[in-house]
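Onboarding guide, step 5: your first structure request.
Type a short instruction followed by the sequence, for example:

Predict the 3D structure of this protein.
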Amino acid sequence: MRQVLRSALVAAAVVIAGAVWLAGMAGAAEILQIGGIGSLSGGGTAWGLAIQRGAEIAIDEVNAKGGLKVGNETYTVKLIMYDDAYSGQGGTTAATRLITEDKVRFIVGPIGSAPVLGTVAVTTPAKVLLMSDGYAPTILKNDAKSPYNFRVTNTTNEFMPAAVKWMRQHFPDKNRVGILSTNDATGQSVLPLMKKFYEEAGFKVTFQEFFERGTQEFTPLLTRMLASGIDIYEVDGNSPGDAALLVKQIRQLGFTGAVIQIGGPSIEEIIAVAGPLADGFLSYDMFDFGASAARQFIQAYHKKYGEGIINGQTPAFYNGTKILLEAIRRAGSLDTAKVRDTLEHMEGYDAGLYGPLVWGGMKNYGVNHQLLLPFFITEVRDGKTQPLIQLRPNKE
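The system replies with structure tokens like these:
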């Protein structure tokens, strides 16, 4: 009798254990790895962290709701982030590692023309879908028409026409512009565009020059620029570390004209480095952190990362990641061609921060993979940012 009872108990334990195991399997979700590439070292670190943190907040939201449902499967989404050191080779290396070692099919980032071009060289032939941000027109305009590459923020082509039109109205008596750009793929592609748009608006670019990335002492270069008689200094889309030093040092040299960055942006970092010398600084700005729509995002950011600077690229990559995850859900597949086709037809989807999704870019790049976002001209006043006007990008 005792043996029979023992056997029955063992059998019951096996049944219970099996039931628990099956329940665990039923509740467990597959892992969907999303790649991330950004500058986590050097002058572009603020941008790399913006990609990582924006993507992580978007992923947290999806996972908190039970995961990402793709067809009949539900996935827990996980971000794998690598440093590109803000270089083309860094982008290539990071993309190669994500694709060959981690087997990812979707990547968010990087920021900057050089790392994006290095990344695209790997992702396009591998048919890996990329949500990136680099200003060089060639990032989208290539022989293959960038079949798997989408740009998640405006570039010079999109925001510059409206921005310089506003500047012409705001500075009717200022005409002479100086521009300093990095001597790399970013600067070499963007500076000619900036000059073109400034001159079309009635300004005269009287000084333009390139500098090597990583420069710390800009005084000799800035002194020569000031000697040309400029009354507007255009900081260009330089990385946060470079831009902050440029603004600080030109004010230290006594320049009292307008200082603006139509590109970037790097406003918070410039305030942190330049201090009171940042007052009056104007910038293209990607997001109004004072808007009611921003509150939930800001709360989620501070809860996860603590109090501190939120770079303007952070909500942009939160937005881009949410769009990507929604496209995967709608496609019902992890096939990148199907997700790409779904992305191309998602106009009107609202990820919560920028309003309905709008694609553009066909005229400029030959493909409608350019996300168009409303933007601002923001001024620094007493160490705080103050949006002056909201503008709409050029849809061409």
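Each response can be followed by summary notes, for example: Confidence is low (pLDDT under 50) at residues 1-28.
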